[in-house]
Amino acid sequence: MSQPISRFTSAAPFWLSLVLVPLAATGAGIGGWTVWLLPIYGWIGTTILDLLAGNETRNPDPDTPEADLFWYRLITMIWFPIQAATLYGLIWYVTRADHLATWEKIALFFGLGVISGSIGITYAHELMHQKNRLERWLGDLLLATVLYSHFRTEHLLVHHRYVGTPRDAVTARYNEGFHRAFFRVLKDGPGSAWRAERQLLSRAGRTVLHPSNPFWRYGALQLAALALAYAVGGWAGLALFAWQAFVAVWQLELVNYVEHYGLTRRHLGESKYERVLPRHSWNADHKVTNWMLINLQRHSDHHYKPDRRFPLLQTYGADEAPQLPFGYPAMTALAMVPPLWRRRMNPRVRAWRKTYYPDITDWSDYNSGRLPMPSGAS
Question: Where is this chain's protein located in or outside the cell (predicted)?
Fold first, then answer.
């Protein structure tokens, strides 16, 4: 049965992210244990609420006209000014506050990194997939506040095209711990994005120095974000800004790790791979986390239909897509402890392989990333 799309009352649960702003203000104003409110709510609170609220397995009508999605789109479009005001406002405040110890400021901006990573980058992800210029610019502005602008190129030109193959650094390999995967992505991601843009420009007969190279925009926006942090809070403000940016990127890559761990596309021979299907991403129906992360956990459908806006993403049963046992907050916490992660997830990967690829008996090349690069990869 299709879930009807209505006015603001239907979209309101997806505005849950606004709760995080007063939590940040409370931590800054009171200090002490309240500086941990953001990560407590983000990981523990939402996991408890997921358990209480249960799962949402109904699907909206995928043919719903875009005009009916205004209230859903609006929260993603207003988030940049909200996040920027919160981030720079708190940089100004805490660098002048006498009641906050250094550790409290560090903890508070860890929490801000949770906001800008789990919410800001998630909204940027939705925005950069759209075709209109305003939304794509808002996505770029959000990514600049976490110094990860190349993510747009890497995600659109590399990840979606090459997910589940050796070309995609974000696809975590079977038995690969998060910490190793994280530093591999940090090392390989910027160069991978640069090569993708260079290849695209070359096809148009342009060099990397051409004004259409988005890396010019990425650099300018990131420099502006850093300059504003310094202007508002001096060197301390700049350090706090950089800290929240690192936490945000760590949060993003934790989610990326969870989304595709161990899932690979069948190698068809030479440089060919099967097309992307719902089975190549982990799916989760946990209701509250999907409200908070605008249906990001319906990731199987996002990769199957990348142009579909978040309110219309479909969910799949276990017969079509592999299912996570918990929502992203609990799964990302589990990923931080590789032995516990492997104990929970490796049997699921092996079951997935047996279900979809029973004829493949040797997975060693898949596990190590030794398969040939897909055709067209640079």
Answer: Cell inner membrane
